[in-house]
Amino acid sequence: MATELQQMIEMVAKDKGIEPSIVVSAIEDAYLAAARKVFKAEDDLRSRFNLETGLVELYSVKRIVDAVEDPLTQIALSDAQELYGEEAEAGMEIEFPQETEKLGRIAAQTAKQVIAQRVREAERENIHGEFSERVGEVVNALVKRFESGDLIVEIGRVEAQIPRKEQSRAENYAIGDRVRAVIKAVTRNAKGPQVILSRTDPALLIKLFEQEVPEIYDGTVMIRGCVREAGDRAKVAVFSRERDVDPVGACVGMRGTRVQAIIRELRGEKIDIVDWSEDPVDFVTKALSPARVQRVTIVDDESRVMEVLVEDHQLSLAIGKKGQNVRLAAKLTGWKIDIKSDEDKKKEVELQLEGLEFGDATEEAAPLMLPEIHDEVVGVLRAAGYTTAEQVRAAGSEVLGALPGFDAETVAAVIEAADKVPVPVEVPEVMAAVDTDVDATTDETVATEKATVTEGETPGTD
User: Which residues contact 338 (CB under 8 A, 6 or more apart)?
Assistant: First the structure.
């Protein structure tokens, strides 16, 4: 009998994934609940599972007191000493065995319910504890059924859920299909712990790279950022701890074998792998791949806003389908990105130039001259309305950089040449004073000569 019961306890514990002691405790509680229902007394009842006999023993416990107030739970010291001798002392407890044969069919049914409930609660706690420690891990699951658009899958003996919002829109599954997903969370509800899986979380892409790329697994290459729009496109920023290891090449693999395996697992999702950089300008330039960027300007460092200039034919590629490329790049880098084409920038500069005052157009001004600057560059400046070096200096590098053919190096050279041109100084009052002095001196000289002639001397003779 004992062997059969012990075997049953071990079998239930193994099947439910719980400790045998939990099953034993459930059996003891079940007998106690059944006994209280049958005896309907206020006795202090206790149950104990005897491992030697394999039976559950039921006891009525009474405390030894000097003066008995409740005969159901207390026993006089004198009566206790008659039963157990002088060893009995006040405060001790005495257990009186009770017959379990009185527990009939109803008690057995109650015990069965209590045991099932306790085992189920223990199983739920075990599942919650196990999967709470595995959040972020990639698991293989089997599709079992569909519930209102959600996928119910099996992970071993445990059911898990892939909500509709955690499913990629590019994927469709049938009952019996195998799917790899990342454990996103473990929640509690009335039915027990619910394991939530995801196919859209960036953690899934990171774990797939760790499985496919040995350099990421051993820590040589690090993933510094990952963003996704599941089913369409993803961007991954990688960094190498060793100079000899190319992080992008390690992730792509020979002829793209490594990244292609991940793309197949994600049902054709495009993946852009870029070099991570501490320089935000360089990082944003690479994050906008595959578009080619002409120039990146930090508009507001505090608000993390950048302006990116691209060629006209690269504008749609930089923005991406429905803004997807620039949106992912902004999430990856943490900067707000404002993309403009050459044509848009030229129009903006023209509007700025209209607000500048270049003097009276009717006055004939000297042509703009900049030392050591090629005539073609000066011609572009003249065509844009710049007539003096001072106007060039006032425009600034951003406005000049938008002129056709002007790159960062040309702009720097033009500003440097404009700084070398001296600023004209107007001194009309000084010139007037000089003219007055000259006239006064001339008049005095003439007056002296006239006086000399009047006295009878002939000018120019001895």
Answer: 299, 305, 306, 307, 308
- Same domain, yes or no: 142 and 99: no
Query: What is the C-alpha separation between 109 and 381, in angstroms, rounded?
Result: 98
Is position 205 within any domain?
Answer: no
CA angle 361, 367, 369 (to 5 degrees): 140
pLDDT in tens, 353-404: 665 554 444 344 456 777 777 677 777 787 777 878 778 878 877 788 778 7
Q: The CATH number of the domain where 383 resides is what?
A: 1.10.150
- Structural domain contains residue 389: yes
Residue 298: both structure tokens together: 């930090």
Q: Exposed, middle or buried, 53 (CB in 10 Å: 0-12/13-18/19+)? A: exposed
**8 A C-beta contact, residue 88 and residue 80:** yes
Residue 146 domain boundaries: 134-198
Question: Which CATH number goes with the domain that contains 142?
Answer: 2.40.50.140
Residues with Cβ < 8 Å from 273, sequence gap 6 or more?
Answer: 236, 238, 248, 251, 252, 259
Q: Where is pLDDT greater, at 76 or 103?
A: 76
Assign 3-class secondary structure to 268-292: CCEEEEEECCCCHHHHHHHHCCCCC
d(CA 310, CA 187): 47
Same structural domain for residues 106 and 139?
no
Residue 121, Cβ density class (10 Å: 0-12 exposed, 13-18 middle, ≥19 buried)? middle
Identify which of 315, 294, 296, 312 has the alpha carbon closest to the alpha carbon of residue 304. Answer: 296
